[in-house]
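Q: Protein A?
A:
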Amino acid sequence: MRDDTTDTKEFYPIWKKYRPVVLKLMVDSLEGTPQSYKFSGHEFADANTRKSAAFSFKLETHKGRVLHPKKASVVASDLMAVLKQSAKATELTDASVFYFVLDSQFNLTVSSKLAETASEEGGE
């Protein structure tokens, strides 16, 4: 995962544009119900410089870090880069574990779990 904005990729502007939406999904998910938002696929396709890139991803984050890191997609990495710049996102991820899933239909689903619960289940 990237820690700075100098190495951002093509999807960073999309996530930056929708940062308020993602933050609202995060806040609303704290009530225990996963929240979803449908993106326009053309925005991701237009930003894509690789014709064979997959856009879908699953991302689990807590305290500004990706949990269970694998080779992260550029789409997920750029989302993390935007979240790391947000004081509100940092505050939220310090207290809870967040799960972000972007499916092949460009539906972003955000869910959360209190950090203490996640730690007891071996989440960290």
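Q: Protein B?
A:
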Amino acid sequence: METTTVPNLILTRSCSPVSMEDLRADKYKKLIASMEKAMIKHKGVGFAANQYGKNLALFIIDKKLAEINNVSSVFANSEITEYGRENDTLEEGCLSIPGFWHPIKRSKKIMFKALNGKGNKIKFRARGMLARVLQHETDHINGITIKDHKTEK
């Protein structure tokens, strides 16, 4: 399966929650492995299930980024519970909008909660690149793409 691209409507809708039990039973193991292959093939740092055509509130991030920050690389039902006051604007690309780059203003620090790939509840503070990737992927599972953000200067 290839990456789902704009204007596919699955990218504009909030995704269905993933159950803790299904994660614990490894129901999404094959899907996650396929998503990782697609993300690596297209040189991404994050990849949401709806970008793979699945209406699930599930996403992955680059394993090196996860290791550096001592966090999981798989997240489900993510929520950003707090945004830091400091922001920065950087150009972001998206695997679902090939060749398009857009300046996006995001918080430098966030408080993040989700289920990890083993179905456990997690909550942590993220900063820098990790915070940016988590915000980008959480946007995806909420039906928001970088084209939906206002242009920042």
